[in-house]
Write a structure and sequence with these properties.
The chain has 283 residues and is mainly alpha-helical. 79% of the residues lie in helices and 0% in strands. The protein contains 9 helices and no strands. Helix 8 runs antiparallel to helix 9. The protein is globular. The termini are far apart.
């Protein structure tokens, strides 16, 4: 039994190494990722167009911006993986990190919009002011992008391994921050909806939406945080090299492709036509 298990483990390891070291399989996996990202981006674009056709007079609402950013993130990821080998050859090396990491920050901004939207609903339902939420959202995002740009400039000026580790840990921290945001505001909104005394199909559906999206987004950002920590300190978990295509596939499938596809499916309902005064565009 022990020898059979050891043989199976050895075979699995050999297969893993064969896939990782094969340029053919590297290209297949990267093109598969490009196709999946492109498909998710196309779904987000189609949904954006449907929403715009339904409520063209309301400008850039939170829902429209969310789908637009989803399209941009997935389209850029798709292009990066189509030209993954060319990206690996770019110099200075910091350009590679920008192309691989910037869509991840944009992914954070995209889903932070949901946290902002839920926080506004929660505080409005409790009769509390929401005046500071949107400015806070923009300040937090501006601070995150500014710090990341500073790290990239330092990495360009002084390309040492310690700065690269610091940059990866920073993105991991941003992911943990996003996970906690979903846990706090998604959890609060979910509990508030559960306390509503009126039972209705709409309430149950909204309760399910908030619960599912909170669970999906909290999990994906937490997994991203853990994986980026391993990525920073363990060469075997490096996501920024060509010879780890299987790890790339599993990572991006779990932290971006599946979560985005599931959230787009759960939030697929079009907004109802309503009075102009009831709908608030992003300002």
């Amino acid at each position: 039994m022990a020898s059979a298990a050891a043989l199976g483990l050895t075979s699995a390891r050999d297969l893993w190494e064969e896939l990782n070291d094969s340029p053919v399989w590297q290209d297949r996996i990267f093109y598969t990722l490009a196709g999946l990202f492109g498909l998710v981006g196309l779904v987000a674009l189609i949904q954006l167009i449907r929403i715009e056709c339904r409520v063209p007079e309301y400008g850039w609402t939170t829902q429209k911006v969310f789908h637009f950013l989803n399209f941009i993130v997935n389209a850029v990821r798709s292009l990066v993986f189509v030209f993954r080998r060319n990206v690996q050859k770019l110099r200075p090396e910091v350009i590679q990190h920008i192309l691989l990491d910037l869509p991840g920050l944009a992914f954070f901004t995209t889903y932070a919009l949901l946290v902002l939207f839920w926080a506004e609903i929660y505080y409005q339902a409790r009769g509390q002011s929401t005046d500071g939420l949107r400015p806070g959202f923009f300040v937090i995002n501006a601070g995150i992008y500014a710090l990341q740009i500073i790290l990239w400039l330092l990495l360009w000026w002084m390309p040492v391994h310690g700065l690269l580790v610091l940059s990866k840990i920073f993105v991991a921290g941003v992911s943990l921050f996003a996970a906690l945001g979903f846990l706090v505001y998604g959890g609060r909104l979910y509990l508030m909806l559960r306390r509503f005394p009126v039972e209705s199909r709409g309430r149950r559906k909204k309760l399910g939406e908030v619960g599912y999206v909170t669970t999906i987004c909290f999990s994906c950002f937490l997994i991203r945080c853990v994986m980026l920590c391993f990525n920073a300190f363990d060469k075997a978990a490096d996501l920024d090299v060509l010879n780890h295509p299987v790890l790339n596939f599993l990572y991006y499938l779990l932290v971006e492709i599946l979560p985005s596809a599931l959230v787009l499916f759960i939030l697929r309902k079009l907004p109802p036509k309503r009075d102009l005064g009831q709908y608030h565009p992003i300002r």
